């Protein structure tokens, strides 16, 4: 089957039955403690598995974001034909209403790129199919269908909105139209103004690997939470972006490049000794700041997304001075963080590497980096929301207790 919607329509009922059975038979079961230091899996596949198995733009190329979308939504590895058809479908859904550009234009150019991005997403919400269908009385069993429409439309439209913000904030403001011969990642790079084939390939990798990291990270979980009272995918995704814009989450990629540049500024060169670097890291920590790009909420080893970006850099830009500095940082930071005695994971995360690659290919404006992360995250969030509605997941409402109650529950008298 070449068409994503038909593929999904066939597998949704089977999963609905499984969840119903699970609830009925094990509704009261306690699941115990979940630990999650196993790394990153996309539907059971590691990043190297995805690189080996998912179709690329050419044989042996990086996985296409469309292939990741297909995998996350269906759990199946798509053929090249299916991926090409999805790329075409996304291009056909990518028309931007003029008022979305105008909503962004209402903000000063100096507004942070993430503020402009969330504003653009909120303007796109005007076209929500879910909202229309709900107002029209759609039955619960069919909620996932307009959620699918909204999610695919949102994913399709984000690169144009995001590229518009880049051109407006940092360049001449002129829109570069989509190229109908290009895939999703490459087209986004093209609309930003980059056409070097290596940059297009890096963007395919970048968009693929930032798409998700379980459902528990701040942005994906925010989308799930906000969509749980049936807020549509645009509302949920705009909220997710606001979480992504925090410096301990997606904004860390901006912070990393700033920090690396501050090291270069301090010593006047990226070619510094281990002692100089060690001193600088201590200076950062002693001023009460975190070392950006290091540590993680659940990972307890080097982020595999760091590793695959490093491999990309080793292949394409081994002599870049900033890449070499990033490599040196990876040697010097972990023992220092470990010595602090409180950091659960001293290893680099995804954000420790992306900036130097983007910078190398000419995308030097680090305050834009989180927008790239956001475009990618829609590919994880969209499928999550579609399945939330297909499985009829409940409104999320964690218990809230006072400190006194918590102490009592913990047995403190
Ligand atoms: N530099 C300095 N201190 C750190 C770091 C770091 N990179 N990572 C953790 N710590 C500190 C943390 O601030 C906390 O200190 P305190 O008890 O004084 O408040 C202590 O170590 C324990 O924190 P953890 O339990 O190891 O980490 P937690 O789960 O709370 O936070 C992060 C995870 C990712 C927020 C944290 O490691 C961090 O702030 N890293 C730097 C920012 C960053 O790179 N974020 C990007 C994450 C990936 N992403 O894209 O979302
Ligand atoms: C992410 O991709 O969202 C980051 O790894 C952060 C997380 O998983 O908490």
What does this protein structure show overall?
This protein starts with a helix and ends with a helix. It has helices spanning 4-26, 47-53, 65-74, 80-92, 98-105, 113-124, 129-135, 144-170, 184-192, 197-209, 218-227, 233-244, 252-267, 274-286, 304-316, 321-340, 351-360, 369-390, 403-409. The chain contains 19 helices and no strands. It folds into 2 domains: 4-27 and 41-247 and 367-390, Orthogonal Bundle (Citrate Synthase, domain 1), CATH 1.10.580.10; 252-364, Cytochrome P450-Terp, domain 2 (Cytochrome p450-Terp, domain 2, Orthogonal Bundle), CATH 1.10.230. It has 413 residues and is mostly helical. The radius of gyration is 22 Å and the shape is globular. It binds nitromethyldethia coenzyme A (NMX) and D-malate. Residues 248-250, 252, 285, 290-297, 337, 342-345, 349-351 line the site of nitromethyldethia coenzyme A (NMX).
**How many beta-strand segments?**
0
How helix-rich are the residues, as a percent range?
Answer: 55-70%
Write down the CATH topology of the largest domain.
Citrate Synthase, domain 1
Q: How far do the termini sit from each other? A: 63 Å
Rg result = 22 Å
DSSP summary: helix tally: 19
Mean pLDDT, rounded to whole units? Answer: 96
H-E order:
HHHHHHHHHHHHHHHHHHH
CATH class of the largest domain: Mainly Alpha
Fourth-tier CATH superfamily name of the largest domain = Citrate Synthase, domain 1
- Major sheet size, sense and barrel closure: none
Question: In percent, how much strand structure appears in the residues?
Answer: under 5%
Q: Give the names of the bound compounds.
A: nitromethyldethia coenzyme A, D-malate
Q: Can you tell me the overall shape?
A: globular
- How many discrete domains? 2
């Amino acid at each position: 089957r070449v068409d994503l919607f038909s593929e999904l329509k066939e597998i949704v009922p089977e999963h609905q039955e499984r969840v119903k059975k699970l609830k009925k038979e094990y509704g009261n079961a306690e699941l115990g403690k979940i630990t999650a230091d196993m790394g990153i899996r996309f539907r059971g596949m590691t990043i190297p598995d995805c690189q080996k198995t998912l179709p690329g733009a050419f044989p042996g190329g990086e996985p296409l974001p469309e292939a990741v979308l297909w995998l996350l939504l269906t759990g199946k590895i798509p053929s090249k034909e299916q991926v090409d058809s999805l790329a075409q479908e996304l291009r056909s859904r990518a028309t931007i209403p003029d008022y979305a550009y105008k909503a962004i234009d209402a903000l000063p150019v100096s507004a942070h790129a993430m503020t402009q991005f969330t504003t653009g997403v909120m303007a796109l919400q005007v076209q929500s199919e879910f909202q229309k269908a709900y107002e029209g009385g759609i039955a619960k069993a069919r909620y996932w269908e307009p959620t699918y429409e909204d999610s695919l439309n949102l994913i399709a439209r984000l690169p144009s909105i995001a590229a518009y913000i880049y051109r407006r904030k940092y360049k001449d403001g002129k829109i570069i139209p989509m190229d109908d011969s290009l895939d999703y990642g490459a087209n986004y790079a093209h609309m930003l103004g980059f056409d070097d084939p290596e940059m297009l390939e890096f963007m395919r990798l970048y968009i693929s690997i930032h798409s998700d990291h379980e459902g528990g990270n701040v942005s994906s979980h925010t989308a799930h939470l906000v969509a749980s009272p049936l807020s549509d995918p645009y509302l949920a995704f705009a909220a997710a972006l606001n979480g992504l814009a925090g410096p301990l989450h997606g904004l860390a990629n901006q912070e990393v490049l700033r920090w690396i540049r501050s090291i270069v500024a301090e010593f006047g060169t990226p070619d510094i000794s281990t002692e100089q670097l060690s001193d600088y890291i201590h200076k950062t920590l002693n001023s009460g700041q975190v070392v950006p790009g290091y540590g993680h909420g659940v990972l307890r080893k080097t982020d595999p997304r760091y590793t695959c970006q490093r491999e990309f850099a080793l292949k394409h830009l081994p002599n870049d001075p900033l890449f070499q500095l990033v490599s040196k940082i990876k040697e010097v930071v972990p023992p220092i963080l470990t010595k602090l005695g409180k950091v659960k994971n001293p290893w680099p995360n995804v954000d420790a590497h992306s900036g130097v690659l983007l910078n190398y290919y000419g995308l030097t404006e680090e305050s834009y980096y989180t927008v790239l992360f956001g475009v990618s995250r829609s590919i994880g969030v969209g499928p999550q929301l579609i399945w939330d509605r297909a499985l009829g997941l409940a409104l999320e409402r964690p218990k809230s207790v006072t400190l006194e109650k918590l102490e009592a529950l913990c047995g403190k008298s």
